[in-house]
Write a structure and sequence with these properties.
Largest sheet: 2 strands, antiparallel
Strand order of the largest sheet: 1-2
Helix content: 55-70%
Number of helices: 15
Shape: globular
Distance between the termini: 46 Å
Radius of gyration: 22 Å
Mean pLDDT: 77
Structural class: mainly alpha
Order of helices and strands: HHHHHHHHHHHEEHHHHEE
Length: 362
């Protein structure tokens, strides 16, 4: 394969990767809802000046800036380099949107309900990503000004605040040529690597805070586990065992009851709250240990493998019982084009990756 042919192939794979990313984030109705608490949780350990309940006003100002109602803050954030670090910003060109907000132009809505709906989802996704970063920019700048006795922010203060707004969560725009090429093939691998990097840098720089937050997260996880384990179905079996492993791995859960589908299968109904990346690495081992004690679902060595995979920048073992074949598929799919990944996860047939069984037609 020569250079021209390889370039064409990479562009084809990049197109499919971009479609998958935009579908999972920019045009996903649930992305905006789960992204904001996850970013705030990430900033709790990664940012030098994390957002607290006292910063409600700062968050409000940031929200108004993200929708174009506080153009001064938005303009300064962009001027000093804080913009273009969001997840959605890597494939939904933010310069166009930011310039439109700064100029006060109205969005051009197509008279098409599908396009209008997708546009609304995209706007909501970008607002939730930018709100946290704008709030970190404003708070860091205020703290730096107070430390230096500045009445007007200096260029140094503004630059440091803009950098903090990027590194205080996850800077998805940060990548070298290797990961830039990898992102063309594997849509989410760079995001996971950058997330792990921000997570461990934050823990290293803020050890006492990270330890306190980790203790709190483990306490919450233990309480929720006990409450969820106590929820039973009509046959007296724990509903927690009927929740798929991916949902448990990525979210704090509150089981509210259960339903029975037309096949007679019982499923738990749950309320989920996304876990920030660093929280998953801390509390999932606790939940896995409790599974070992109370349900004998996993051996301790399997919990250890899941923990290492969760803490690693590259996932190599799916949650749940260890299976060498599935682990190899998981590892390879992280560096594979979306088409292969879909084939791998469904095992080339109608396989339900969430319930762990063959799909059944009506």
């Amino acid at each position: 394969m020569n250079g021209v042919q390889s370039d064409i192939m990479l562009r084809i794979m990049a197109r499919s990767g971009n479609l998958l990313r935009t579908g999972a984030t920019l045009y996903s109705p649930t992305f905006a809802v789960r992204n904001l608490p996850r970013d705030i949780g990430q900033a709790a350990v990664a940012a030098e000046y994390p957002l607290t309940p006292k910063d409600t006003g700062t968050m409000g100002d940031a929200f108004m800036a993200s929708i174009g109602k506080n153009r001064k803050l938005l303009r300064e954030w962009r001027k000093w380099g804080g913009a273009y670090s969001t997840h959605t910003g890597q494939y939904a060109p933010p310069p166009t949107r930011t310039k439109r907000l700064l100029s006060g132009e109205k969005g051009k809505w197509v008279h098409d309900p599908v396009q209008a709906t997708l546009g609304a989802f995209g706007e909501a996704a970008q607002v939730t990503e930018e709100t946290t970063r704008l709030a970190l920019f404003q708070k860091t700048r205020q703290e730096r000004m107070a430390e230096r006795g500045e009445k007007v922010p200096s260029a140094t203060t503004s630059k440091e605040a803009a950098l903090a707004s990027r590194t205080g969560v996850v800077d998805y725009g940060q990548r070298g040529w290797v990961f830039q090429a990898l992102s063309m093939i594997s849509p989410f691998q760079n995001a996971r690597i950058q997330g792990a990097r921000a997570q461990y840098r934050g823990i290293w720089n803020h050890k006492a805070r990270a330890a306190l937050l980790s203790a709190g997260a483990m306490t919450v996880a233990a309480i929720l586990y006990a409450a969820n384990r106590s929820m039973k179905d009509d046959k007296g079996k724990s509903l927690l065992d009927r929740v798929d492993e991916r949902t448990r791995e990525r979210n704090f859960m509150i089981i509210t009851g259960h339903i029975t589908d037309n096949r007679g299968d019982t499923r738990a109904t749950v309320i989920t709250i996304p876990k920030p990346d660093w929280v998953r690495a801390v509390v999932n081992p606790i939940e896995g240990f409790f599974d070992h004690l109370y349900a004998n679902k996993r051996e301790l060595w399997e919990v250890a493998v899941n923990t290492l995979s969760e803490a690693s920048p590259i996932e190599f073992a799916p949650p749940g019982k260890f299976d060498l074949g599935r682990s190899l598929e998981t590892l390879l799919s992280g560096f594979s084009p979306p088409a292969y990944r879909a084939y791998s996860e469904t095992r080339g047939r109608g396989y339900d990756v969430f319930r762990g069984r063959e799909l059944e037609t009506e």
